[in-house]
């Protein structure tokens, strides 16, 4: 019953655009215009689900709806940030490109558009080519392609509506903490295994951006956390802990839209896990973190100017496997290693070589004056990236730094140099589920950090 009530509330939020009364004096309220909206993106057909390669049947119903949410903030200098959060496993390049193209008529430039996925493992599989590669019924690949087109269109329409509604607003930043994320790389005599590591690195910060209207009503609460959304692994659609956290924050702030942005959680898991009750408990823990951030006396009112920047950097892969290596790999008992080897052998046959570069790796930065720097990294960035960005960009704690992973193109794992040296799943073993040749070379972290520093210093000079 309580679940049905929650569902009704969630459904009623479908395609809500918040109208902000135009009564504030923009000069007095500093410098922002903003609006927020939400749309349900729950698949209307039984789609194949992502998250776990071993799934053997499509989705069987839902726990609650999945949403895409849009927050548009515009500085009086005309610079704009369009933040799109989604209850999805990842943002594919196709989805990002389709949204980017369709929002151009609304005056949204590429550098202003940031898409983030909550990384729920109980969402639809958006990679139709992966469905085919895994040998799943091709019907589900077609449904997946159709779903991506539908989601892109719904997000773009929502962006257009929200852009149209921007009105004077105030923005505040604060943060608190939540403790359920745990490092999942445990060193053993056989190497690093996927298991709770109480001594591994974490980033327990819960950053919160609050948007308030002229009348002082909170209309948007954007919050982040660095933790895989893998409490659940069943066959029902569900936002996992981020879905529940957003629901709980909205229940505590009627009329407000809560948005979740995943952090650098490539090597972070929620523990314990595997029951719906635990997903709700983690969601409650995160919602409590958000409420704590909202009541701290450390809230900073964000001033301008807003500056945004986007660039693609090139990453290099380590030496690709030879044809002989791949032919040997075809003889292993591991189905996924065989599928990976087959794909690379096909690439060798077709092009005479295997790709050595990831040449369009998107990086994005938004700067709110001297108060907050928001960094968007693509892929499943490990926690080292957010810790390093905080250390190197915060000017000894004078500027808040919020780093999101899972932005714009969630291709697979993004290890740090340390993790590459340690080895294990996030270092390269997980690449067997992609079409990439294997692990990145050891320059990966410096190429990304150099790119982020170039973007931030480019903004500073303006
Ligand atoms: Zn993941």
Q: Which kinds of small molecule does this entry bind, naming each only once? A: zinc ion
How many domains is the backbone divided into? 1
Please bin the fraction of helical residues: 25-40%
**Low-confidence blocks of residues:** 1-13, 18-29
Shape: globular
By DSSP, the count of extended strands is: 19
Q: Per DSSP, what share of the residues sits in E-state strands of 2 or more residues?
A: 25-35%
Strand count, sense and barrel status of the largest sheet are: 10 strands, mixed
Number of helices: 11
Overall pLDDT metric: 93
N- and C-termini, Cα separation: 55 Å
Q: Give the H and E element order.
A: HEEEEHEHHEEEEEHEEHEEHHEEEHEEHH
Work out the radius of gyration.
Answer: 21 Å
List keywords for this structure.
4-stranded mixed sheet; 27% strand; 10-stranded mixed sheet; alpha+beta; 462 residues; binds zinc ion
